[in-house]
């Protein structure tokens, strides 16, 4: 069995002080994808930068204190790639991938966007480039006899069952019709939303809750953290769960780990 977790840590240094280190020590995952690490490697404690029993790949952003992704794996990768061949985005700390036996794993932090601002334009440019890359990646991996799994914070809720207050968010970044249509195109192109395959009905399971108000206590969340896999790998998924904290005060991020177990 292969178990993979993904989580937006909302600042790895802060998360390490609030419970991430303990979660990492206890997890049964074989691979972990992190997003929004917001730290240079030398800013992290050794036990977070290079935890015992793990091989770590850290991809910080050139913009200090922003974005950043990482991949931890118990097996040493045979290859590591930072970015996806984009002149604009490869140093932005938004994508890293590793080659593991029979599998390519990517950690993605897609821009969040903001309607009517340059941030939304940036998000749309990223989406266009990354969609083309995903098609190429699937073909290259298949030629090498590998499956593909891209985990991370995709910053888009795909369907109405993927967020609690969908009616109020139809004109907001993260639930725009064009963003949702883009995800549909991804899922129609040979990739599968693994968690939704295992939990077809909804609502949720949500993976992000705002720190504002009573969003967490009321389970007023969004499902924006995905395992996106090639079809053959998705068929091998046997369990998916969101590791939601038992209470607000025990959270170490505004996201929760999304963990999936796959048959070998």
Query: Which fold name fills CATH's third level, the topology?
Result: Deoxyribonuclease I, Chain A
Number of strands: 12
Inertia-based shape: globular
Q: Supply the number of structural domains.
A: 1
Helix-strand topology string:
EHHEHEEEEEHEHEHEHEE
**Radius of gyration, in angstroms, nearest whole number:** 17 Å
Low-confidence stretches: none
Distance, first to last CA: 5 Å
- Tell me the name of the CATH class: Alpha Beta
Number of helices: 7
Site (Transition state stabilizer): 155
Family: Belongs to the DNA repair enzymes AP/ExoA family.
Pfam families: Exo_endo_phos
Domain Endonuclease/exonuclease/phosphatase: 6-255
Structure notes:
This protein has 264 residues and is of the alpha+beta class. The chain has one domain: Deoxyribonuclease I, Chain A (4-Layer Sandwich). 25% of the residues lie in helices and 25% in strands. It is built from seven helices and twelve strands. It has helices at 12-18, 20-26, 46-49, 118-143, 177-187, 194-198, 231-235; strands at residues 2-8, 31-35, 55-59, 69-73, 79-82, 95-100, 103-109, 147-153, 191-193, 225-230, 237-242, 258-262. The strands form two sheets. The chain has a six-stranded mixed β-sheet. The longest helix has 26 residues, at 118-143. The model has no long low-confidence stretch (mean pLDDT 97).
């Amino acid at each position: 069995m292969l178990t993979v977790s993904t989580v937006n840590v909302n600042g790895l240094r802060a998360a390490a002080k609030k419970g991430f280190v303990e979660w990492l020590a206890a997890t049964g995952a074989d691979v972990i994808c992190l997003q929004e690490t917001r730290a240079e490697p030398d800013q992290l404690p050794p036990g977070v930068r290079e935890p015992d029993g793990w091989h770590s790949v850290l991809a910080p952003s050139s913009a200090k204190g922003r974005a950043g992704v990482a991949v931890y794996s118990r097996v040493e990768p045979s290859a590591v790639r930072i970015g996806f061949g984009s002149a604009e985005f490869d140093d932005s700390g938004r994508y890293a991938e590793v080659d593991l036996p029979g599998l390519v794993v990517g950690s993605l932090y897609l821009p969040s966007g903001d309607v009517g601002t340059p941030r939304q334009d940036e998000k749309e440019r990223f989406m266009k480039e990354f969609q083309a890359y995903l098609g190429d990646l699937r073909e290259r991996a298949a030629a090498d006899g590998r499956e593909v799994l891209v985990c991370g914070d995709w910053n888009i809720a795909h369907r109405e069952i993927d967020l609690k207050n969908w009616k109020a968010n139809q004109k907001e970044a993260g639930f725009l019709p064009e963003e949702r249509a883009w995800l549909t195109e991804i899922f129609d192109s040979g990739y599968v939303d693994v968690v939704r395959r295992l939990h077809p009905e909804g609502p949720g399971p949500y993976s992000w809750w705002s720190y504002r108000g009573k969003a967490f206590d009321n389970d007023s969340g969004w499902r924006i953290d995905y395992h996106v896999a090639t079809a053959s790998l998705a068929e091998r998924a046997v369990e998916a769960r969101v590791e939601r904290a038992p209470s607000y005060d025990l959270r170490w991020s505004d996201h929760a780990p999304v963990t999936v177990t796959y048959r070998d």
